[in-house]
């Protein structure tokens, strides 16, 4: 089995080790901004691989296997008729975007509005 182990170090460094059949590689240290970018590139490649191989990533329960991060900021790109909007997520000085078509953006907006409503107004 293959896995990745990541550990926060002092000085804004993330140490990354690969595990292959129980054997761990030596650690590679990188600034946390580069680690965020690397993680997003891995996610994008995994999604593309799943699509190419005809095996879409299965949706599970909302937080099954999800690592949650505290973001330092959110933004939304302007988008256009030809291009989707992008939700820009900031984690410190690192950032990445999540592409959202208009229908997805509308559904996400409705979900955010419902989640942010006072508890006595939620259905």
Tell me what the structure shows.
This protein is α+β, with helices and mostly antiparallel strands. It folds into 2 domains: 58 residues, no CATH class; 57 residues, no CATH class. Helix content is 29%, strand content 33%. It has 2 helices and 7 strands; from the N terminus they run ββββαβββα. The strands form 2 sheets. Strands 1, 2, 3 and 4 form a 4-stranded antiparallel β-sheet that branches. Strands 5-6-7 form a 3-stranded antiparallel β-sheet. Strand 5 and strand 6 form a beta hairpin. The termini are far apart.
What is the topological layout?
Elements: E1 2-9, E2 13-20, E3 23-24, E4 28-31, H1 32-52, E5 73-76, E6 85-91, E7 94-100, H2 102-116
Antiparallel strand pairs: 1-2, 2-3, 2-4, 5-6, 6-7
Task: Quickly list its features.
7 strands, alpha+beta, 123 residues, 2 domains, 2 helices, single chain
Q: Give the C-alpha Rg.
A: 18 Å
Fraction of residues in β-strands: 25-35%
Q: Which blocks of ≥5 consecutive residues have pLDDT under 50?
A: none
- Mean pLDDT equals 83
The number of helical elements comes to 2
Extended strand count: 7
Count of discrete structural domains: 2
Gap between N and C termini: 44 Å
